[in-house]
Amino acid sequence: MTRNVVPDSNTLVLGIETSCDETAAALVMGGNDVVSTVVSSQIEVHADFGGVVPEIASRAHLQALNPVIARTIVEAGVDESRIDAVACTYGPGLIGALLVGVSAAKALALAWDVPFVGVNHLEAHLYSAFLEDPSLEFPLVVLLVSGGHTMLVEMQGHGRYRLLGQTIDDAAGEAFDKVARFLGLGYPGGPALDREAMNGDPDFVRFPRAMSDDPSNLDFSFSGLKTAVVNYCRKHPDVGTADIAASFQMAVVDVLVAKTRRAAQRIGATGIVLGGGVAANSLLREELLGACASDGIRGFLPSRAMCTDNAAMIAATGWYRLKSDGPTPLDVGAFPNLRLPLVDA
Ligand code: KG4
Ligand code: ZN
Questions:
Q1: How far apart are the C-alpha atoms of 279 and 298, rounded to whole Å?
Q2: Are 16 and 98 part of one and the same domain?
Q3: Do 245 and 261 lie in a common domain?
Q4: Residues whose CB is under 5 A from ligand 2 (ion)?
Q5: Structural domain of residue 292, as residue ranges?
Q6: Is residue 281 within 6 Å of ligand 1 at its C-beta?
Q7: Do 197 and 270 have their domain in common?
């Protein structure tokens, strides 16, 4: 029988994240005080392949995880007996990669006789803002833009989400990665394209803004934009890469910001929060803050380190989930296609 833990401001949660290509651990106190956070990136391991290779990712997690957890505990300067719960991403993500983290988290929870908490990676991205500002007030609109997802979510309260819109094809991060690869900007594509765009003209080409005609439609589509970039470059082989990167980025950001703004107006949000890897994008951050200022609502941008995959957001979400739902049974599996839990519309 696992020790009963009722989370409070002194509860120390170890978070573990291995859903994709970052091996991460963090210790977070009381749901928002980050005591230590360690992220070991596999970027170099996958760079030669131009993308994440699932089998290689699982092996790299196996090698890195124990040292990453050990470093997290040493950096926090606490004894492991002080840890009150172990939270770990159990989906969505790559199945082999998820299993490494989930198995380790269950083993540690058993060994330390503390609760295990399975955390939804998407929910954790929503929570990264609360790590840095727990005073955010509901209802909030969260624009969750990562390599695998593009969603507009109404956050009505802790654990209460309603889906307002989502991509019907590619995720925004996927579009950044594919266009960066086509332009020869290297891997990972998003940050490389962001840097290249700084030297280009965002108005050089007006690429299409898909699904923008109907103001009530909050869904996104990015696959046509990628094709438009490829077609344009084939017709104009001498065009500068920086101008294409800047024009592409402007088209993505335009649509993301316009729809997020509309979503906030529709639900009367107190503010807009960004989450997911693409939330690290310079232009998106700038434009979103500008839009919030003109609309007189709060715009909250988590730091870049909290936008991309990390375990502090897992530990924070674990704290909230432990509080609302209690421990997750140890026979729970890993779920590659886990969805965000939604309340009825
Ligand atoms: O959330 P994340 O770290 O992993 C997933 O859960 O997918 O997001 C990774 C995605 C990648 O597609 C990456 O290219 C993109 O976020 N990304 C960016 C930037 N930094 C990361 N995209 C645009 N601009 C950036 N600065
Ligand atoms: Zn992520």
A1: 16
A2: yes
A3: yes
A4: 146, 309
A5: 136-302
A6: yes
A7: yes
- The reply to whether 101 and 214 lie within a common domain is no
> Phi and psi at residue 205, in whole multiples of 5°?
-130, 140
Instruction: Tell me, yes or no, whether 338 lies in a domain.
Output: no
Shared domain for 179 and 146, answered yes or no, is yes
Reported as a single tens digit per residue, the pLDDT across 232-283 is 999 999 999 999 999 999 999 999 999 999 999 999 999 999 999 999 999 9
Same domain, 86 and 232: no
pLDDT in tens, 8-57: 999 999 999 999 989 999 999 999 999 999 999 988 888 888 888 899 99
Do the domain assignments include residue 250? yes
In a domain, 343, yes or no: no
Give yes or no for residue 188 CB within 6 A of ligand 1.
Answer: yes
Distance 84 CA to ligand 1 centre (A): 31
Provide mean pLDDT across the span 210-238: 95
DSSP letters spanning 313-325: HHHHHHHHHHHHH
Q: What is the mean pLDDT of the chain?
A: 95
- Among candidate residues 79, 101, 75, the one with its CA nearest the CA of residue 16: 101
Q: Is 148 in the pocket of ligand 1 (CB under 6 A)?
A: yes
227, containing H or E segment: helix 223-235
pLDDT single digits (tens) 108-165: 999 999 999 999 999 999 999 988 888 899 999 999 999 999 999 999 999 999 999 9
List the one residue out of 293, 287, 281 whose CA is nearest residue 255: 287
Q: In a mutational test of the pocket of ligand 1, which residue from 122, 249, 308 has the highest number of ligand atoms less than 8 Å from its CB?
A: 308
Atom of ligand 1 nearest to the CA of 309: 3
Instruction: Tell whether ligand 1 has an atom less than 6 A from the beta carbon of residue 191.
Output: yes
Give the number of the ligand closest to the Cα of residue 121.
2
Report the alpha-carbon distance of residue 200 to residue 193 in Å, rounded.
11
**Dist. CA 280 → ligand 1 center (Å):** 7
Structure tokens at 216: 């009530």
Asked whether residue 1 carries a pLDDT value surpassing 70, the answer given is no
pTM to 2 decimal places: 0.94
- The answer to whether residues 290 and 232 belong to one domain is yes
| CA 337–ligand 1 middle distance (angstroms) | 19
